[in-house]
């Protein structure tokens, strides 16, 4: 009897393990997870030139805002799928590649339409996703495509630009909303987006939280009165917003049958790296590797700049807004081990 129960349990858990497999990683968001979609739209928010990608396979700039891989590449690899998540708009790839992973993300975008004027807004990423589902249906057949969608890990990573490049940069939103109201406005958009994904068959969704955005080198550089320390008010906004998102995930999981929505929070691990860089083998967390490391990103972080560091793995940040590959790998590992492991 005991043996039978044991066998049954073993059988059940191996069935569960098989059923829990993730066949594809599907990504929405901003530059934290864009693998080059912006190369194919008219925008200056780009990074498809050296020294971006100098530690990527083949030393190749791809449009990823880092010296190498971004977190979703590491996560896709950890899921046992493949090494990179390709960009949907990149003509080098087609549905046979996208069937196991695709990113619709666009650097400089946000939840708010007003953040994403010149790039791919979140609603447009959803339109691309619907188009993708049709292609997937043709490629795999409807039944397998449906199954893939329901088992795929859908990831969302955005929101920093709404605050730093919109709310606190221009008067429009800040004259209309208090910071708290703006947080609620954005969280409402995130919630609707998740409901849309659910309606389209997605069941495994990771909602990414904000990083300690007051500690991005650009914000520290401009925090002159604060002695170039992290900007506490921006970190507080990130904490508050993350709290809202976390509560929302709890409610949606209760409400939507079969939903497995998780909140992937990069805040504390990143803050720990920034506060104790040497524990992780870094030498600098306050300035970035590229150029002077204080202001530059995108076109300002260009190959001709003689100030760029020689070993990016000594730096937490690659440019003034984006982590190095090494930081991305640590954060991705942390999220996989602590949150996404339930999908493995
Ligand atoms: C995708 O591209 C590869 C070559 O890059 C080609 O062999 C394959 O037939 C294409 N698949 C589809 C479904 O278009
Ligand atoms: C953003 O723009 C799209 C397309 O115009 C629209 O459908 C959507 O309602 C807008 N979102 C918000 C929150 O205003
Ligand atoms: C696939 O999913 C769609 C939308 O949920 C549904 O209408 C369709 O019947 C499904 N097809 C199969 C073969 O399961």
TrEMBL record:
GO molecular function, one term: hydrolase activity, acting on ester bonds
Keyword Signal listed: yes
Cited Gene3D superfamilies: SGNH hydrolase
Any matching Pfam family: Lipase_GDSL
Keywords: Signal
Entry similarity comment: Belongs to the 'GDSL' lipolytic enzyme family.
Entry protein name: GDSL esterase/lipase
Organism: Senna tora
Organism ancestry: Eukaryota, Viridiplantae, Streptophyta, Embryophyta, Tracheophyta
